[in-house]
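Thread amino acids onto this structure.
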């Protein structure tokens, strides 16, 4: 599966962005999906995942501010990010997880999209 993330940019603190991840190769419905991010000088961290159809899980740092969703007809997964903070600055990438792996086994990773939040 090929993944392409888009939608990053520069935004002021408190602002919003919507990231998109388009899949090709195999259909989106074949996978559970997740978003990860990596800030400068830090390790990659899990941000949000959608699995088992419409179950969602979030990192504590983004819970209540970010929303992951999917549109299988468009083969696209989204990450709606609200009330952004400077500490959300990172390269965000999407990943396709094997179904029933509880978001632990990944078959594909997309190139990231940079999100920069200014204070």
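Threaded sequence (119 positions):
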């Amino acid at each position: 599966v090929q993944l392409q993330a888009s939608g990053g940019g520069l935004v002021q603190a408190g602002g919003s962005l919507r990231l998109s991840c388009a899949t090709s190769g195999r259909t989106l419905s074949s996978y559970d999906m997740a978003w990860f991010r990596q800030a400068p000088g830090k390790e990659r961290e899990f941000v949000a995942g959608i699995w088992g159809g419409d179950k969602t899980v979030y990192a504590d740092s983004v819970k209540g501010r970010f929303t992951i969703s999917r549109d299988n007809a468009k083969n696209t997964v989204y990450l709606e990010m609200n009330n952004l903070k400077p500490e959300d600055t990172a390269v965000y990438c999407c990943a396709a997880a094997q179904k029933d792996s509880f978001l632990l086994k990944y078959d594909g990773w997309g190139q990231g999209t940079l999100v920069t939040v200014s204070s």
